[in-house]
Design a protein that fits this description.
258 residues; mainly beta; OB fold (Dihydrolipoamide Acetyltransferase, E2P); Ribosomal protein L2, domain 3; four-stranded antiparallel sheet; 1 helix
Length: 258
C-alpha cells in the first residue's frame, strides 16, 4: 500500500480542523454507537465537482486520507492552483488528467455520462447535475455504464443494482483507488481505537434489561425466532429503505442478495 503513496505532508490550504463529536448530535444524544476518542485528524478539502473544468492538471502526489478508505491525488492545474481529487487505480505521479464535458477516455479523466461509451467503468458519480459527486466513492468501487436512453444513462452499481442517472451528470473514468482495503488486517484492537472506534459487545453477553438477546445461564441461544436490535426491532433481512425516497423511480433493477 505505502509503495504508491508520496511521502509528504498534506497541503495546508486544502485542510481544515475536524472536530470529533463521538457519535453525538447537536443536542449531545448518541446517534452512532461505539464511536469516541481516536487521534486528531485534519479534513482534506476534496473536489467532488467540477471546480477546474476544461483545464488540464498534472498529478504531483498520491496521499493517504485518514477520513476515507480511498487515496487522494493532489492535482496541479495550468493556473498553478491545486486540488485534491479521489484517486483512481493505476494513476501515477506525473500523469495528466482533465475535467471536461467531453474528453479522452482515459483513467482519471472526468466527463459527462452521455459522452462515455457503454461498458466503461466509472466512479465518483453525480446524482444531480452540478451538485457534486455523491455515489461510488469508497475504496475499490466502480460502476459500469450499461446503456444510454433519451436523457438518462443506465448504470450497474457495485451492488449490482441498475439505476438511471441523468446523462448531464459527471463521472470519473476508472475504479476508485485502494481496492485492496477490504483485505487489510487491522492486527490489533488499538488500531481501531486510534481510528475512533470503541469496543462493541455481543447482545447475548448482556443482561435482559440491556438487550433482547441477553440473559440466561452460560452460553445460551438468543431464545427468539429472529435476531433483534437493542431496541427490539428485526435485525436481519428487513428492508430499511424508505418507500417514498425520491430516487426510487430511478431504480431499474434492485440489487440481489448473494
Amino acid at each position: 500500500m505505502n509503495s504508491i503513496l508520496t511521502k509528504k505532508k498534506p497541503e495546508k490550504f486544502l485542510t481544515k480542523p475536524l472536530k470529533s463529536n463521538a457519535g453525538r448530535n447537536f443536542s449531545g444524544q448518541i446517534t452512532v454507537r461505539h464511536r469516541g476518542k481516536g487521534v486528531k485528524r485534519l479534513y482534506r478539502l476534496v473536489d467532488f465537482g467540477q471546480e477546474k473544468i476544461n483545464m488540464t492538471g498534472r498529478i504531483i502526489a498520491i496521499e493517504y486520507d485518514p477520513n476515507r478508505t480511498a487515496f487522494l491525488a493532489l492535482v496541479e492545474y495550468n493556473d498553478s492552483s491545486k486540488r485534491y481529487i479521489l484517486a483512481p487505480n493505476g494513476l501515477k505521479t506525473g500523469d495528466k488528467i482533465i475535467c471536461a464535458p467531453q474528453a479522452e477516455i482515459k483513467t482519471g479523466n472526468r466527463m459527462m455520462l452521455k459522452n462515455i461509451p457503454v461498458g466503461t467503468e466509472v466512479y465518483n458519480i453525480e446524482i444531480e447535475p452540478d451538485k457534486g459527486a455523491k455515489m461510488v466513492r469508497s475504496a475499490g468501487a466502480a460502476a459500469r455504464i450499461m446503456a444510454h436512453e433519451n436523457k438518462f444513462t443506465q448504470l450497474e452499481m457495485p451492488s449490482k443494482e441498475i439505476r438511471r442517472v441523468k446523462s448531464e451528470c459527471f463521472a470519473t473514468i476508472g475504479q476508485c483507488s485502494h481496492a485492496e482495503y477490504r483485505f487489510e488486517n487491522k492486527n490489533k484492537a488499538g488500531s481501531r481505537r486510534l481510528k475512533g472506534w470503541r469496543p462493541c459487545v455481543r447482545g447475548s453477553a448482556m443482561n435482559p434489561c440491556d438487550h433482547p438477546h441477553g440473559g440466561g445461564e452460560g452460553r445460551t441461544s438468543i431464545g427468539l425466532r429472529y435476531p433483534k436490535t437493542p431496541w427490539g426491532k428485526p435485525a436481519l433481512g428487513v428492508k430499511t429503505r424508505s418507500k417514498n425516497k425520491w430516487t426510487n423511480k430511478m431504480i431499474v433493477k434492485r440489487r440481489h442478495k448473494n
